[in-house]
User: Which sequence fits this backbone?
């Protein structure tokens, strides 16, 4: 990966541009990037620029799960207009990148603008000397073959990290099943957040452009409800962008584990953020359905807190009337032994062993039938009310 052009770690500018529908993306995107100095600040002619969208598992564009094809196409065209050779890639939670891009419509959009799919299957060991928690990652080969990376995250809620933002989207730079392995190795939300921050700093995209035209609230990142947000967010600083995304959701940024880790490790300073374009105050959605509870999403570590974990910590619950018993939740569970499984063949939905559940919510993320929801036990709900 080549050095970033005109990118400063100290740059805390975040651009908010109104964009009510996907037909208006090209103009809105040009406006947003223009407020940061123009496209020439982020690429040079003949450079290979990789676009990293949010594919998750590959869903229809109208579901609000993935980066919209029109958004992707506009971003690709903008960088091509500056003479860059554009490629793209992501490693979905389950299945191949080729299948995910077809299902999401990104593959068709890429063909329209002549953008090829990069290698997100082969992994390469990369040392990370500046990492706080991890000093090495296995990145997708396509990342290393590019001169620069442009991050295209989606504005969504998330069961583990509360929101899916610029930093969380870069988890897809790790190919294949190793993502599940990280959930098993780092079952604490704060450690998981530190790992994601280390990864984001290593990949170091030149620019982050968030698709917040249609967002997702509630049971995200896959099975929530779509919501009209009508914005595009642009920044060179992923933590500053995610901070603003949290504020737009009316979510305290300190509750987001990646932001907590980034601030603790000196990756960003909230007081230094400068918002350009629309104001945060004019765009905040006070009723956005997001987890604002002070209770940890994974449960605080320690012997006594482990005893209380099942009493207060949110947990995945299966709605039996929606479950088709496909088994995806069982296959993706990273716990050893698995915390979910079939006990009577497939005649009944899988059952959880909450003592073994690490609260990674991978099962909820990959469920194709909106059958798994994250529920807070009564004691946890009571604590939330006392806190409020």
Assistant:
């Amino acid at each position: 990966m080549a050095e970033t052009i005109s990118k400063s770690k100290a740059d805390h500018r975040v651009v908010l541009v109104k964009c009510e529908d996907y037909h208006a993306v090209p103009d809105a995107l040009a406006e947003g990037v223009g407020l940061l100095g123009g496209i020439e600040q982020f690429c040079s002619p003949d450079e290979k620029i990789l676009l990293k969208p949010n594919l998750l598992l590959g869903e229809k564009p109208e579901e609000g799960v993935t980066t919209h094809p029109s958004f992707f196409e506009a971003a690709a065209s903008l960088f091509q207009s500056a003479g860059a050779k554009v490629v793209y890639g992501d490693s979905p939670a389950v299945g191949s990148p080729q299948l995910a891009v077809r299902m999401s419509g990104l593959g068709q959009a890429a063909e329209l603008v002549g953008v090829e799919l990069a290698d997100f299957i082969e992994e390469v060991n990369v040392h990370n000397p500046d990492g706080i928690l991890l000093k090495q990652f296995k990145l997708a080969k396509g990342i290393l073959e590019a001169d620069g990376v442009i991050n295209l995250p989606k504005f969504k809620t998330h069961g583990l990290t509360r929101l899916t933002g610029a930093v969380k989207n870069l988890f897809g730079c790790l190919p294949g099943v190793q993502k599940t392995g990280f959930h098993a190795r780092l079952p604490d939300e704060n450690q998981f957040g530190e790992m994601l921050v280390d990864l984001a700093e290593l990949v170091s995209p030149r620019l982050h452009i968030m698709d917040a035209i249609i967002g997702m609230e509630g049971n995200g990142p896959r099975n929530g409800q779509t919501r009209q947000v009508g914005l595009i967010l642009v920044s060179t600083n992923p933590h500053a962008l995610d901070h603003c995304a949290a504020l737009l959701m009316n979510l305290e940024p300190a509750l987001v584990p990646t932001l907590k880790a980034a601030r603790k490790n000196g990756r960003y300073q909230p007081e230094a953020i400068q918002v350009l374009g629309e104001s945060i105050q004019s765009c905040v959605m006070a009723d956005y359905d997001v987890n604002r509870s002070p209770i940890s999403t994974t449960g605080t570590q320690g012997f006594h807190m482990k005893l209380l974990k099942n009493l207060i910590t949110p947990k995945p619950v299966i709605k039996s009337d929606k479950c088709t018993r496909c088994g995806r939740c069982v296959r993706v569970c990273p716990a050893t032994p698995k915390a979910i499984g079939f006990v009577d063949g497939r005649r009944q939905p899988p059952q959880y062993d909450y003592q073994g559940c690490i609260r990674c919510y991978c099962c909820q993320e990959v469920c194709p039938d909106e059958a798994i929801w994250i529920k807070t036990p009564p004691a946890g709900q009571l604590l939330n009310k006392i806190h409020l």
DSSP finds 15 helices and 16 strands in the chain. The longest strand covers residues 207-217.
